[in-house]
Amino acid sequence: MGAILGKKIGMTRLYNDKREAVPCTVIQAGPCFIAQVKNTEKDGYDAYQLGFGERDEKKVTKPVAGHYKKAGVNPGYMLSEVSKDLLEGEFVAGNPVSVSVFKEGEKINVLGVTKGKGFAGVVKRHNFGGGSRTHGQSDRLRAPGSVGGSSDPSRTFKGTRMAGRMGGANVTIRNLEIVRIMPESNLIVVKGAVPGPKNSYVKIVSTTK
C-alpha cells in the first residue's frame, strides 16, 4: 500500500514485450513530507497530512507558515490527507515520503482536477444528438430540447442536463498500472491518461479494489 502527491509532467509512450506502443503519463511523484499526523484521540480519525512542492515564503500567510513550522519543513504547494492504512510503518511530522512506497506493476488510483473547458452546450457537455437537420428547422441544430412542460410539472427539475461550465471537476481514475518507477528522478510512469493539464497536481494512492 502507498500514497503520494505529485505533478503531471506530460504523456509519452513505451514499448512492451510484444513491441506494442503503450500510452503513458509521466508524474513527478514527491519527494513529499509528513506535515501533520492526525489521531483518533485528538482529531477523531487517523490520517497523515502529506505536503508536496515548495512555495515562496513571502506568499504564505502566518497561520499556514506556523502549521509547516511545527513539522520543521518548508511550506508546500499542495496539502492533502491520506489514511494511515495506505502507508506502512510509523511516520512522524517532518518524515519524507518517496516513490519507493510503490512498485512496478502495482495498480493505483489517480485523483486530480480535469481540464476546464469553459461554458459548453449540451452537445459537447452531455453528448446530446441535437435536433433535426431538415424539415424547415433554422436554429434547433444543437438545441437541448424541452427542459420541462409548461402546465405539468411547470418547472425544470433539479439536475436536468443543460448547458454550463464544463470540466474543472474532481475525478478519480481507477486501476491504472505503474509501468516504471525512477526513484533517482522521483518519477512514476503510469499506463494511460490521468486527469488535468500539464503541471497540474495529482494524488496517487494504492487501489483497494
Describe the structure concisely.
The chain has 209 residues and is mainly beta. The chain has three helices and twelve strands; from the N terminus they run βββαβαββββαββββ.
General description of the model:
The structure is a single chain. With 209 residues, the protein is mainly beta. Helix content is 9%, strand content 38%. It is built from three helices and twelve strands, in the order βββαβαββββαββββ. The strands form three sheets. A six-stranded antiparallel beta barrel has the order 1-2-11-10-7-12. Strands 5-4-3-6 form a four-stranded antiparallel sheet. A hairpin with a 4-residue loop joins β10 and β11 (187-191). The mean pLDDT is 90.
**First CA to last CA: what distance?**
12 Å
Mean pLDDT: 90
Q: Would you count the extended β strands for me?
A: 12
Low-confidence stretches: none
Strand order of the largest sheet: 1-2-11-10-7-12
Rg, Cα atoms, Å: 23 Å
How does the helix and strand content classify structurally? mainly beta
Note the topology.
Elements: E1 3-15, E2 21-29, E3 32-38, H1 40-43, E4 47-52, H2 62-71, E5 78-83, E6 96-97, E7 107-113, E8 118-120, H3 122-126, E9 164-166, E10 170-182, E11 187-191, E12 201-206
